[in-house]
Amino acid sequence: MPGKETTYPSQRTLFQALRIGLELPDFSAVSGVLSIIAVLLAESGDVERAIELDALNRLDPQLNHSKWYQTWIGEPIAAAAVGQSPALINAAQARDQSFDLWQTGATWLAKLQSSE
């Protein structure tokens, strides 16, 4: 997650949900877990990676137009991004739009497993 020194009580739950989502495969489950990770990253100060995950999730038209997503995921990330340079924000958004949801999910699964 955000740093090796930080352990969230929910990391095990996020790991299990992401593992199941990848095994099924279930787009909504993987996207949902990555959304939660994005908010946790934003809250811990890793705004750049939070923006990357948010940009990936917003490639899904349903999430991009979801009031729920905007309120619970988008707004906290946007609030954390206040004061960040526009170049950093644009680069993070552009970078993750080229990522694959399944590959990104697998990468985060490995990160969650290694931080336990």
Structure description:
This protein has 7 helices and no strands. The chain has 116 residues and is an all-alpha fold. The model has no long low-confidence stretch (mean pLDDT 89).
Gist of the model:
This protein has 116 residues and is mainly α. The chain is built from 7 helices and no strands.
SS field, number of helical segments: 7
What percent of residues adopt helix (DSSP H or I)?
over 70%
Would you identify the regions where 5 or more consecutive residues have pLDDT less than 50?
A: none
Radius of gyration, whole Å: 13 Å
Sequence-ordered SSE layout with sheet pairings:
Blueprint: H1 11-23, H2 27-44, H3 47-57, H4 61-64, H5 67-81, H6 86-96, H7 101-114
Helix pairs in contact: 1-2, 1-7, 2-3, 2-5, 2-7, 3-5, 3-6
Key words describing this protein structure:
mainly alpha, 0% strand, 116 residues, 7 helices
